[in-house]
Design a protein that fits this description.
The chain is mainly alpha-helical. It has one domain. 43% of the residues lie in helices and 8% in strands. A three-stranded mixed sheet has the order 1-2-3, covered by helices on one side. A hairpin with a 4-residue loop joins β2 and β3. The protein is elongated and about 90 Å long. It starts with 8 loop residues before the first helix and ends in an 8-residue tail after the last strand.
Length: 130
């Protein structure tokens, strides 16, 4: 009788099926974690922007205008103006809103800001109340 020197086709197929099942279970969990991380980063950026706006108000006695908010807050932020990274996009635009509290303006994402009250929020319907 000859000694076995390799795996049979059945053994290889069973191993491949097991690996496929494990991948099918693990991949969605990693994808959800990436979405959660992007949302957490955006919420942290929102908190940072709100703090920077309040510091600007304390220093100048007013809130930045919509057109100059990115340059006005540059001294209060480390690095570039933070983007909204929810939904797989990275948008750092600031849209004006005269509403109090602010409401979603368009569907471009980014930030929505009321220069009269200094209120800034995420310009997405799913996150406008944060």
């Amino acid at each position: 009788m000859r000694a076995r020197s390799a795996f049979t086709l059945i053994e290889l197929v069973v191993v491949i099926i097991i690996i496929a099942i494990l991948a099918a279970v693990a991949v969605p969990k990693f994808i959800n974690r990436a979405d959660e991380a992007r949302e957490a980063a955006t919420l942290q950026s929102l908190s940072t922007l709100r703090s920077a706006i309040e510091l600007f108000n304390a220093d100048t006695g007013g809130y930045p205008t919509t057109g100059s908010i990115t340059t006005d807050l540059a001294a209060y932020l480390k690095g570039p103006f933070p983007p909204v990274t929810i939904g797989g996009t990275s948008v750092a635009t600031v849209t004006a809103s005269a509403s109090d509290p602010v409401v979603v303006e368009g569907s471009t994402g980014g930030w929505v800001y009321n220069p009269t009250t200094g209120d800034i929020r995420i310009n997405l319907a799913s996150h406008i109340n944060q």
